[in-house]
Amino acid sequence: MIKKIKENFKIWRKLKDIKNRKEHVWTTLKKYHKESGNNYGTYEKEKYIEICFSLDNNNKVVKKYIHHIDEQNDSLKSIVYISEGFDSDKAKDILILASHFNSLMNKGHVIVNTDKETICMEYRIPLLIPYLYELEIHNQCHDHYNHSRDIVWAFNRLLIFDEDPIFIMVDLMKKIKERVK
């Protein structure tokens, strides 16, 4: 009971000083990555951290992740580029697969830029959430990474093996069910 009261008081104090949330979340984000023990790059002026992770056991698929304090939108963003260049003939199937993911995901969305031929996945939460609950930084980074593994897998099947988006989603659902078991 006393622990809950202390926690609520701490949140109340933070709410009184809400104007410092950007700096507080930025400091907490840097601390989180420092304590993780991973290699990363910090860009103070732009307020983002860049880190690379392997998505498979053989380190054949490595992606760059960006965790960014978006001051314009007052949010914490996590971004991973799924593909930086694709065959424009596959744009229709890419958009179909992206729309499947966007209809299923409750956090984030897949963004396709047909002009630059890029595909990325972005998570975004208001800065107030990690400001009040620091554990949300870990949750967002962890969830973003786990979802990106499935999305990269699916888009690789489309871009490399030219499979139909519907069959990719069916196989992904089976894969997720097996993992849950």
Would you kindly provide a brief summary of this structure?
The protein has 181 residues and is α+β, with helices and mostly antiparallel strands.
Secondary-structure map with pairings?
Blueprint: H1 2-16, H2 21-36, E1 40-43, E2 48-54, E3 62-70, E4 75-84, H3 91-104, E5 109-113, E6 118-126, H4 128-132, H5 135-159, H6 165-180
Antiparallel strand pairs: 1-2, 2-3, 3-4, 4-6, 5-6
What is the CATH architecture term? 2-Layer Sandwich
Percentage beta strand = 15-25%
Straight-line distance between termini = 37 Å
Biggest sheet details: 6 strands, antiparallel
Number of helical stretches of at least 4 residues = 6
Instruction: Give the overall silhouette.
Output: elongated
The strand count comes to: 6
CATH topology (fold) name: Yope Regulator, Chain: A
Strand order of the largest sheet: 1-2-3-4-6-5
Q: Would you mind describing this structure in some detail?
A:
This protein is of the alpha+beta class. The chain has one domain (19-180): Yope Regulator, Chain: A (2-Layer Sandwich). Helices cover 50% and strands 24% of the residues. It is built from six helices and six strands. It has helices spanning 2-16, 21-36, 91-104, 128-132, 135-159, 165-180; strands at residues 40-43, 48-54, 62-70, 75-84, 109-113, 118-126. Strands 1-2-3-4-6-5 form a six-stranded antiparallel sheet.
Keywords for this entry:
elongated, single chain, alpha+beta, 50% helix, Yope Regulator, Chain: A, 6 helices
